[in-house]
Amino acid sequence: MGDILLDVRGITKRFGGLVANNDVSLQVEAGELVGVIGPNGAGKSTLFDLLTGFQTADAGEVLLDGRDVTRLRPDQISRLGVARTFQKLKPFTQMTVLENVMVGAFQKTSDPARARMEATKALDRVGLADKAEAHARVLSTGQRKRLELARALATRPRLLLLDEVTGGVDLRSIPALVALVRELNAAGTALVVIEHNMGVIMDISRRIVALHLGEVIADGTPAAVGRDPRVIEAYLGHAYVR
Amino acid sequence: MGRGLRWGAAAAALVLLIVFPQVVTQPFPRHVMISIFLYAMLAQAWNLLAGYCGQISLSHAVFFGTGAYTSTLLARHLGLSPWGGMLAGAVVAVLLSQCIGYPVFRLRGHYFAIATIAVGEIVGTLMINWDWAGGARGLFVPIKRPDSWMNFQFHESKQNYYYIALALLLLALWVTRRVERSRLGYYLRAIREDQDAAASLGIPVAGYKQRAMALSAGLTALGGSFYAQYIFFIDPESVFPTSLSILICLVAVLGGVGTFWGPLVGAAILIPLGEWTRIAFGGTGKAADLLVYGALIMLVSVIQPGGIMALAMRGRRRTG
Hints:
The structure holds 2 protein chains of 2 kinds. By secondary structure, chain A is α/β, with parallel strands linked by helices. Chain A contains 9 helices and 10 strands. Chain A has helices at residues 44-51, 74-79, 97-105, 112-126, 141-153, 174-186, 198-204, 222-227, 229-236, and strands spanning 4-15, 18-29, 33-37, 59-64, 67-68, 82-84, 159-163, 190-194, 207-212, 215-220. In chain A, the strands form 2 sheets. A 6-stranded mixed β-sheet of chain A has the order 6-7-8-3-9-10, sandwiched between helices. In chain A, strands 2-1-4-5 form a 4-stranded antiparallel β-sheet, with helices on one face. In chain A, a hairpin with a 2-residue loop joins strand 4 and strand 5. In chain A, helix 3 (97-105) packs parallel to helix 5 and helix 4 (112-126) packs across helix 5 (141-153). By secondary structure, chain B is mostly helical. In chain B, 76% of the residues lie in helices and 1% in strands. Chain B is globular. Chains A and B meet through helix 2 and helix 3 of A and helix 7 and helix 8 of B.
């Protein structure tokens, strides 16, 4: 067992009458890769927003290395080593691909030349080096996903939260993205990955957390979660539970 | 066009501008040039905040007026040299900008712009009613003779004002270039494009908006102090009006928001045009210059919202 990097303790978030996250608890160890699954509206993206300071929990707490980060701002959490991508991609469209990634790299240096070097490395890692001078707005969805990944990587995170790696990406690009995620994890970065593609998530995760209507309904190995009757019911309805 | 060639052209233009008042000695063309420099400089200062960082301010006259009033009041009451007053004005404007920015930067997009209009109106009204600072009657800059650089007063000719205005413009351009090439510039553009993405990469968004505002306000105040020393009379209507805030914005928008040369290009077109319409229509058409500005802005929005700089870039791509 490694050290616990992220410790989420019973966080709850309400939007009016809707409980988007209800008493959610989970832990991520340093260097671990955890998958998060759940049908649409299960509260996965809200969970990411709570972990990265874009939303503040109504109850419960988020600990990073034992430090309470529940009420910190997104930029403060980023500087503690937590990076994320967004389900709805947010490229800086009027900048080049390289400049986009430099913005991330500037977290660790104020020197433009060094930021440029770091950004080039990050683009290399995601296989986007040949697009460095292109404007971000001309990229395909798959390339934009890689761009966001490179931008997040350039901040040199210890924990990376990926919101839908393969969503909206054409089928041929999926294996390369999956290989990339594996590679990042092998290099020591802890990852929490939201993913709808069951084949992908079952394949890459060592542990999966299933959310349904804002609550954790399963937390375990991919095989165990895949057999869990509550997970099957959440996805397919009661009739499929044997 | 190569980089070297471009800088060569810029250097040649600069030499021409330096020689200009030696050749042209009539006051009017000099005055037009001084106005161009001043408005280009103000628009560039505005551009730092609105163009690069995406925070549209419609109350930059507040900082202009702050500069003008600070240097004039210090000269009247303490006999301080306008140069010192200019720096003091910039400091006061920076402090004021932080006080305004702190609450107002919590608002996003259009709400920020609307809030700045309110700030401009409030400050203008306060100044009209502040008797110690001249109230609605305004203030005369204490006249000192003979002409001297020390006193920042030149009654014989506009030549020295010309060079001071040119220096202020160069300062604004230099600051902008420095910002563009540094981390600050990347961060400001990131904030303009997507605040959430910027924050997720570790950028303290509000703090960087404050920095952009400070730079912008400080530079604008320098322009205000210059104006006071140039005209010798200031009142709320001449240095605090919303119409000035709008004009600063129009100059930058016409030339190209968020571009390095845009404000200068905008001023070089709009200011002579304004002077010409004022002369052509005289007292009969008091708002004729505003009509022309309005028509130009509509043209820009329809043809190329990126301003003349974007139009030029498009042309270059087509030919090159």
